[in-house]
Design goal:
By secondary structure, this protein is an alpha+beta fold. 24% of the residues lie in helices and 28% in strands. The chain has three helices and seven strands, in the order E-H-E-H-H-E-E-E-E-E. The strands form two sheets. A five-stranded mixed sheet has the order 2-1-7-5-6. Strands 3-4 form a two-stranded antiparallel sheet. A hairpin with a 2-residue loop joins strand 5 and strand 6. The longest helix has 11 residues. The radius of gyration is 12 Å and the shape is globular. The N and C termini lie far apart (41 Å). 23% of the residues are buried.
Length: 92
């Protein structure tokens, strides 16, 4: 099945593009997808994970719903899901 990963700001810079499509297994979770991407793009590891947990620095959503309102990193993905990783917005 295919999912889409959309990134913004420094996360996008680490990946080099805004949108990435990936084939994942039927049992794949948000954490599985992000760990795979962090392996492929090492600069992501420190932005997406604190030790072995999803970072609280970045907002991760699946189809517009924050993973905290779902099953966190253990949220199971479905074909066509869109996972977004958004860093905090600062400025004034």
């Amino acid at each position: 099945m295919e999912v889409e990963f959309v990134s913004f700001g420094p996360i996008r810079e680490a990946v080099g593009e805004k949108t990435i499509r990936r084939e994942v297994s039927e049992e794949a979770t948000v954490e599985d997808l992000l760990a795979e991407l962090a392996t492929e793009f090492p600069a992501l590891a420190g932005r997406l994970f604190d030790d072995d947990e999803l970072s609280t620095w970045v907002t991760v959503t699946v189809n517009g719903t924050h993973v905290k309102q779902l099953d966190g990193g253990g949220t199971t993905l479905a074909d066509g899901d869109v996972v977004r990783a958004t860093p905090p917005v600062r400025g004034g």
